[in-house]
Design a protein that fits this description.
binds zinc ion, mainly alpha
Length: 126
């Protein structure tokens, strides 16, 4: 965890060749403690996803007799999709166009070379 004084130094040192004074630290602490609208929006989205996940977790336990241990094991299996147990699934490169064979661009619905539609079968593609 980075404390606010370090963040204050990091921000104030950019443009001033490493100079640091108390005002810079105070100013940057204020901006760190006030989340932007986008961060607040993302926090709300994460909270909503947590509630949905919790509801699905409860349904799985109540209707299928899954235990917490079985569900945690399944989370680890998903985490290992990219070969690393690190709390995230690193996105895979988009691969090649099935029509022209050129490398596809990430987050594009169509191949930028031939215009073929990109169809992704994995509904959890990142
Ligand atoms: Zn193509």
């Amino acid at each position: 965890m980075i404390d606010n004084s370090f963040v204050g130094y990091a921000f104030s040192s950019r443009g001033r060749m490493g100079s640091l004074n108390q005002i810079d630290v105070i100013d940057s602490k204020a901006s760190v403690s006030e989340p932007t609208t986008e961060i607040k929006y993302l926090n709300q989205k994460v909270e909503r996803l947590m509630m949905i996940t919790e509801a699905l977790w409860i349904i799985l336990k109540e209707t299928n007799n899954f235990t917490d241990e079985i569900l945690k094991q399944k989370i680890n299996e998903v985490d290992m999709k990219d070969g690393k147990l690190d709390g995230k699934v690193t996105p895979e490169p988009p691969g090649e166009c099935s029509n022209c064979g050129k490398v596809l661009q990430k987050n594009k619905k169509y191949c930028i070379y031939c215009g073929d539609e990109v169809i992704i079968d994995d509904i959890f593609y990142r």
